[in-house]
Amino acid sequence: MADDPEQSQLPQDAPVSPHEDESEVEVSIDYKLKATSGEEHHHSTARPIKAIYDDFSLTSGSASGVRFRNHNNVREFKIYDQMNAQLILEEVEDRDHEEGDEEGRKAGRGIRIKQASDTSYGLQFLRATYSLIAVFVGGFLLILGICILLFLFIDLAVQLGITSNQDLSVSNFIAVGLSIPVFVYSFAMGMTLMTRFVVDTFYGHPFLRTFGLDIVTTDWIAFVMYLGIPLMTIIFTLYMRMLNWWEISCLTWFTTVLIFWMVFSACVLWYEVRECLDLIVEVEDNLDSDSHWLKKTKLAIIHGMRNRLCGTKLTFQKMTFSDNEEDDGTVERTSSGKYHYTEGPLTKLTKWKYMSCIYSPLDPPKRVYSLDETRGSVSFVTRTSWSLEKLFCLKGGVLGAVPITAGDYGITKPQIDSTIACRIMGLLIYVLILGGIAHWFGLEGAELGLLLFVLVFFVILANITTYRILDVRRDIIEQKKVFRFWVKHLITTPKDSFTMGFIVAEVVLFFVVPLIYLCLDGNTQTALVFGFFGLVSSIRHYMNAQTLLAEIGPDRFNKQHRESDSKEWKKTHRFYQIAEIGADRARWFWVNVFIGIIIFFVLVVLMAAYDTATGNVEDVNYGFSEDRYTFRSDFSYDAVPNLPYPTCSLKKGITSTNLDESALSGFALLAGLAYTYENQTQGYLDEWYGAGAVTNDIGTVNAFKKVQSLAPGDKFSDSAVSYRFFNFGNNAGVVSIRGTSTIWDLMADAQLWLPATLFQTLRFFLPMGNIFSPILHRTTKYVSKLESASIEKVAFYKETASFVNYLKDRGYTVLVTGHSLGGGLALITGAQTDTAAIGMSAPNSMISRDSFSPPVTVDALNTLTFNVVPSKDIIPMVDDKAMLYQNINCTAPSITITSRVSSTPTTIENTDSSTSHQIAAPQLISSSKTTRHPLFRNTNVNILSMPVPHPEIWLRCLDDMRSNDCCSEPQSLWGAVVNTLKGHNRRHTMQHGITKDVEVIFEDASVGAQMLMDECGLITNQVDTNQSTQYLPEIFMKEQETKGHLTAVLSHYQSIVSSKDKSNLKRCKARVVSTTGSIGTKCPRWHADHVPVRLVMSIIGPGCECIPFEMEATAASDETIQVVNRHALNNLEDDDTSIANELIVPTDHLQLAKKLFNKDVITCAKPGDAVLLMGKGWEDESDDVLAAVHRSPILNEGEKRILLTVDVADWDYSHQ
Question: Record's InterPro entries (predicted)?
Answer without folding.
Answer: AB_hydrolase_fold (IPR029058), DUF1826 (IPR014955), Fungal_lipase-type (IPR002921)
